[in-house]
């Protein structure tokens, strides 16, 4: 997949745990874990906004595009 989620990096930099962040952004720890581990297929803008607000960051610090190694094959 060409989209990489760097939520784990941002959480480590901000020294905040999964359960604490999940509570602050009103998402279940299980769903936040799916997002953190690059298993999510989508994210709501409201969730992204809440995460950015709590981590004091920009969406581009959490989400990045990387080219696939297989060149679309």
From TrEMBL:
Pfam families xref list: HTH_26 (PF13443)
Source taxon at top rank: Bacteria
SUPFAM superfamilies with a match to the protein in the record: lambda repressor-like DNA-binding domains
GO molecular function: DNA binding
Gene3D superfamilies: lambda repressor-like DNA-binding domains (1.10.260.40)
UniProt protein name: Uncharacterized protein
Taxonomic source organism: Clostridium scindens (strain ATCC 35704 / DSM 5676 / VPI 13733 / 19)
């Amino acid at each position: 997949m060409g989209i990489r989620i760097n939520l784990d990096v941002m959480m480590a930099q901000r020294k905040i745990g999964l359960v604490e962040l999940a509570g602050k952004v009103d998402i279940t720890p299980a769903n936040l874990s799916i997002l953190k581990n690059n298993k999510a297929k989508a994210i709501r803008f409201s969730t992204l906004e809440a995460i950015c607000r709590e981590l004091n960051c920009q969406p581009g610090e959490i989400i990045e595009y990387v080219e696939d190694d297989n060149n679309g094959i």
